[in-house]
Amino acid sequence: MTATWHADDAELSRYVAGVAGAVNGASIEQHLLRCPVCRARVAEYVPQQPLEVVWERIRRQAEEPRPTPAQRALVRAGLSGSDALLVAAAPSLRTSWLLGLAGTLGFVALSVAYGGARGLAFFLLVAPLVPVVGVAFAYGPDVDPAYEVGRSAPYPATRLLLLRTAAVLATSLPLVVATSLVVPGLDATAFAWLLPALAFSAVVLAASTWCRPAVAATAVALGWACAVGSAALVRDAAAVLTPTLLAGYCLLGVAAVLVLRLRLRRNPFSRELT
Amino acid sequence: MRADIASGDPELLAAVAGGDLGALRLLYDRHAPWLAVRLGRRCNQPEAVSDVLQDTFLAVWKEAARWRSDGEVAAWLWGIAVRRLVSRLRGHHEALALPSDDVAAARAPEPSAEDKVLLGVEYGDLGTALLRLSPEMRAVVQATVLDGLTAREAGRLLGIPENTVKTRLRRAKAHLRLDLSGGLT
């Protein structure tokens, strides 16, 4: 692609000055596309200073971290860029979390399919805790690299908490639901676990106005494990999902949401989230 | 791969795709000057030219992987730059200050491979023939044939309807053909 012909100096300087005329100008432009030598010669006629200014702007923008796929998806879903950045920084939205979740669920599905009653107990133990753990790891000093930034930025902590909770539920619940649907023999259990899951998530949110979300989630998980474990020992793990208890989970969830609202209203700024 | 001053443009692009800002700087040094001049010939607002230059190289930074290693990197860069210019100037046609006339919006076929023939001719007789075109027709020929814009993009750049671009281009080609076959002299 090397050209043997080159534009002469006078022609090039007239071109750069904008006085080469339409035809000569067009001719030079076509030549420049193919000729590195003449491109370099054009550069000698172009003042360097304005180009440096533009380069500085390019460099500054190029060095900003590129948005992750999660951020881009959130922006497409209608969040502003800064909201998307903060939401996507939640540890429970990272690829590693989702991969871990998928692995756990695959294991659960296998155990339910081949493990009989014990497998069912295992499913009941794990499924409702997935969103709870996700919510716990969506916010807080233990887990969030952006936590200090978030605390010092004039950004409502409540908004961040709720946005992230919504994002976590939106990513983890469908995965668990999908798992429960492909596993045979779960019937109503495949959906009944959603009630304790949502109730416990609300409890963790409400409790996080007093203590760290991870602590609240641990307490909830221990309690739930005891309940499922004892039910499985005594009779049948599905006993934790009797209609009476399901109504109880509903009440628990509603109560937790009310407590959360009350706590947030009384203390609307970020102190309530330790 | 480490790109340096001796690397060719495709190697630099590959390095840019791998996140090498130094390679982007080398590309910028090589191509920003002529791009700035060429953009400046199409737009008389220096700050718009700067913005377009910035957009272009940021697009290269993000999309370098899209470069399919055929043809000239320079032509690819110009393709990005002139389209950024089109979208930047949408609605700001005072920057171009080209007169528009009321050519009847006749249906014309899409610009064809014939345009490429025009391009391939080294400017001999064609040069003088081009000079005899009216400025409006020359602007259309420049935008479509030389700058590689579609009729719609050229219309946006020049602030005229797409059909007018096609009509003028068709007329310009007829003129040139007649002129080159000795009909006008």
Number of domains of chain A: 2
Radius of gyration of chain B, in Å, reads 18 Å
Largest contact between chains: A-B, 35 and 38 residues
Seen as an oligomer or otherwise, the chain set is heterodimer
Write a brief caption for the model.
Chain A is mainly α. Chain A is built from 14 helices and no strands.
How would you characterize this protein structure?
The complex is a heterodimer of chains A (274) and B (185). By secondary structure, chain A is mainly α. Chain A folds into two domains: 9-63, no CATH class; 69-272, no CATH class. In chain A, 73% of the residues lie in helices and 0% in strands. The longest helix of chain A has 32 residues, at 95-126. Mean pLDDT of chain A is 77; it is low at 269-274. In chain B, helix 3 (46-63) packs across helix 4 (73-89), helix 4 (73-89) crosses helix 8 (151-158) and helix 7 (135-146) crosses helix 8. The longest helix of chain B is centred in the N-terminal third of the chain and has 20 residues, at 21-40. Chain B has helices at 9-17, 21-40, 46-63, 73-89, 114-120, 125-131, 135-146, 151-158, 162-180. Chain B has nine helices and no strands. Chain B is elongated, with a radius of gyration of 18 Å. Chain B has 185 residues and is an all-alpha fold. The A-B interface holds A 1, 15-16, 18, 21-27, 29-30, 32-34, 36, 39-40, 42-43, 45-46, 50-51, 53-55, 57-59, 61-63, 66 and B 9, 21, 24-25, 28-34, 36-38, 40-41, 46, 50, 53-54, 57-58, 61-62, 72, 74-75, 78, 119, 122-123, 127-128, 130-131, 138, 142, 146.
